[in-house]
Amino acid sequence: MIRSILGFWLAMLDALVCQIVYFMSLLQAMLEQVTNEGSHQKQRHKQQQQQQQQPPQKLYKQRAIQTAKRRNIGECVKSPVSQLPNELLTEIFELAGARHLFHATLVNRRWHHLVTPILWRAPVLSGPVCCLPPFVKEGHIMYCDPVRASDSFPVHLPKYGMAVRSLVLPPLHTTDCSVLHIARYCPNLTHIVLDDCKRITTFSMYLLSQHCSRLEAVSVSRCTLVDNTGLGQLQRLERLSSVRLAGLREITDEGVIALAKAVPLTELDVSDCSGIKCLDELAKTCGDRLTRLGMARQPLTALRTIVKHCPNLQHLNVARKSMADRRLSYLVDSLRDHDIRLSPLGTTLVRRHRALEKAHHVDQDNLDTILKGLSKLEYLDVTNWQVNSPEPCRA
C-alpha cells in the first residue's frame, strides 16, 4: 500500500518538473525574441542615420538597387518588345488609337516617354488657355503670367509644349494672351485654327510669325480685327501653304496679293471678303500651285482667268447668295401660261423672272467653263446658281 502511494506521488512530481522546464524554455525564447527586436531596431536606426548623412545621389542609387533586387529584374528574362528600338516603337504607337495610347502610358517609363508626344500632337482644349483676359492701357497690352495660368493646359512644360503640332482654339476664350502663351511654348506648331475669335488682333499674327516658324496652315476666318498688317506679318512664314481668310472685311487685294507673292500658297479662302475686288491678279500670282480656292459670294468676273491660270484646282467654292425664291418663278410661269393680266406688282415679278432666266444662261456658261478647264477638279460648290441641276454640283 505504501509503495503504491509513493509511486503515485513520484509520478506527480515528475510531471510537475516537466511543466516547470517547459515554461522556463518558453520564457527564455520570449526573452531572446525581445532582445533580438531591440537589436534590430538599433541597427535600423543606425542605417537611417547613415543614409541621412550620405549624399542624395548615393542614396538614390542604393534605393534603386534595393528595388531591383526586390523585383528580381536581373533574374527575369527580357521581353522581345523591350529590345525594340525607340524609332520602331514610335511607328507602332502612331498606328494605335487614343484609347490604346492612354493605356500604353501606364506600362513603364519608356513607353510613357514615347507615347506622350503622340497624344499631345493635337490636344483638344476644354477651356481658356489663360485665366485672365488681356488689359489694354495706353496702347500696350498687359498679359497674365502664362505659367501660373496654364494648369489645365500645361504646354509650358517642354514634354507637352514641344510635342504640339495642331491646335483648334475655342472662340469664346481666345485672346492675344492665349496666342502669346501658345506661340512661346509651342515652337513646333504647324496648324492653328482661330476661326470666329473676335478678340484676335494683328498682334497675334506677329507672335505666330516670330515664334512658330514651322507653321504651314493658318485659319483666321471671321476674325474681324485682322487686317492687311496681320497678313504682312504672315509673310515671314516660309512654310506657310494654307491660309483661310473668310469673312475678313478689313483686308484688300494688296494684302492678299503680297502674301501670295511671299509664301507658296496651295490653299486660299477669301469668301465673303468685301475688300477684295480684283481676283484676276491674285489668280495670276498663285498660278498652277493653287489646289484649293474658296471665293464664295465674290464677283465671278475673274472666273475665266482663274480657270486659265490655276489649272490644278481640286476644290473650288463659288457659291453665291440666293437671288430669288423658286416658288416665285413657278408662280410667274403659271401666270404667263394662263394669259392672266398682271397688275403693276405682277409686271415687276415678270421682269424679275426674266432676269433670272438671263442669269440662268450666264451661270450655265460659267459652269461649262469650269468643268472644261479644270480637269483635276474633285469638289465644286455652286450653291444658289441657276443651273439645270437644282442641287449643288460636285464634280
Short description:
The protein has 395 residues and is α/β, with parallel strands linked by helices.
Give the radius of gyration.
40 Å
Classify the helix fraction into a percent range.
Answer: 40-55%
Arithmetic mean of pLDDT: 78
Strand order of the largest sheet: 3-4-5-6-7-8-9-10
Shape from CA axes? elongated
The counted number of beta strands is: 10
Low-confidence stretches: 131-150, 390-395
User: What is the CA–CA distance across the termini?
Assistant: 130 Å
Largest sheet: 8 strands, parallel
**How does the helix and strand content classify structurally?**
alpha/beta
Specify the number of helices.
14
How much β-strand is present in the residues?
5-15%
Strand and helix order: HHHHHEEHEHEHEHEHEHEHEHHE
What does this structure look like?
The chain has helices at 2-53, 56-71, 86-94, 98-104, 109-119, 158-161, 176-185, 202-211, 228-234, 253-262, 279-286, 303-309, 326-337, 344-373; strands at 135-137, 140-142, 166-168, 191-193, 217-219, 242-244, 267-269, 292-294, 315-317, 379-381. The chain is an alpha/beta fold and 395 residues long. Strands 3-4-5-6-7-8-9-10 form an eight-stranded parallel beta sheet, with no helix packed on it. A two-stranded antiparallel ribbon has the order 1-2. Helix 9 packs parallel to helix 10 (253-262), helix 10 (253-262) runs parallel beside helix 11 (279-286) and helix 11 (279-286) packs parallel to helix 12 (303-309). The longest helix is centred in the first third of the chain and has 52 residues, at 2-53. Residues 131-150 and 390-395 have low confidence and may be disordered.
